[in-house]
Write a structure and sequence with these properties.
2 domains, BAT_GAF/HTH-assoc, HTH_bacterioopsin, transcription regulation, alpha+beta, 8-stranded antiparallel β-sheet
Amino acid sequence: MGGPQRFIRANRDSKPTVIAADLRLDTPLLATVFETVPDVVVAVDRMYATDDESVLLHCRVTADAFGPFERALAEADDVSAFAALTTDSDSRRYRISLVPAAVHTSTYRGWVDCDGMLLEARRSDEEWTVRLALPSREALCSFRDYCAEHDLRMDLRGLSSYDAMNQENRFGLTEPQRDILLQAIKLGYFDIPRSASLAELGESLGITGQAASERLRRALKSLLETSLDEDGSVDSTAATVEG
């Protein structure tokens, strides 16, 4: 952990600021799944508790074939249930329920107790790479201590200002709003005629059709407000995006 960790200690008394921490986590979460299908790539979109003991993962999975992956999930000791939410040819979206014993090995409780927020999590090349938003360097140190207490290796790869990261989002969208817009395009919600309903859009994201409708309206409102000038013309700066 070397240099980055010394940097944290040297700045513990500095003014608190929301930070984004890029981490490598060595945890046994879904370890047997990755042993069975080592080439699969899992990108976690959302992770949240449904009660005091249960945690759900929403993730995008890329694999050559999904049969072996789903069989491995069915046999995994840390998975209580799973469902495929989309069935694209080369990638699929899954909802995975963890057993209570796996909550700590997922590190979920650790960063939640530190008032952290998961920004990204990805498992490939035999490691989990994670980006967390944390309220302070002290919170990051607390999360490090949590990992040590549970025999989970945490390597700090880098720190950045989360506020600075948010300024890069010129469209004012939250991550869930961006996700629902991208998913709506992907499923054909905006096509004529529509290829997916609000209920189907919500199901693909693990939310109700009503929640999908409200989130989509908020996302479109934010997008329009930040993309259009007061006279109704398109903001040329905001309209320039890659991809």
